[in-house]
Amino acid sequence: xxxxxxxxxxxxxxxxxxxxxxxxxxxxxxxxxxxxxxxxxxxxxxxxxxxxxxxxxxxxxxxxxxxxxxxxxxxxxxxxxxxxxxxxxxxxxxxxxxxxxxxxxxxxxxxxxxxxxxxxxxxxxxxxxxxxxxxxxxxxxxxxxxxxxxxxxxxxxxxxxxxxxxxxxxxxxxxxxxxxxxxxxxxxxxxxxxxxxxxxxxxxxxxxxxxxxxxxxxxxxxxxxxxxxxxxxxxxxxxxxxxxxxxxxx
Length: 250
Fold this sequence. Notes:
single chain; alpha/beta; Rossmann fold
């Protein structure tokens, strides 16, 4: 697939005179894994927040599947198939893994999460919830309380809850942040497994994480696009090397 699924034109966000995202023209091809990377302070997460309308652009436009979604409410963006995760794990710690996924699956029933109804009302979602847990490598933790899970498994669970919304495009905000090396490898392999039939845009800090994973890498620094291409191209770019070594102010 080569059609553009997500496109920004002149995307800009200013905070009291500070330009965090500066005229970004981003194009993500459908069916690809696309990384948005850069040093700390480069504007990656701000850009992500703009794409999902958790922040409103100062200037510029965002188009998803050809439709202008600039300024659209985040919940409406998600209903259109553009769903994000967060850098900090966003799961219910005192529920089980299965219960977390079941709550996400309630989207199929409409807007209500039915917290006031009997638990048995959610049993209809059990089979699909267990399948999603299996998809992310967590079938053994279905009945465990999330607070007791290791950090890497919490991140995998968050991906399962994102998948429950049946997104056409997933935005993953630093999915490997704060992980030990073994957990990083697990999440990288998970992203490879779930890519079928989906587009993935991920924010990442570490070039080594996206090596061999992403089709296209866009490098940000000081809120602007510094370079773009495959891993071989951007990893050898002198400006990218300078930015990561700290010789360019990010």
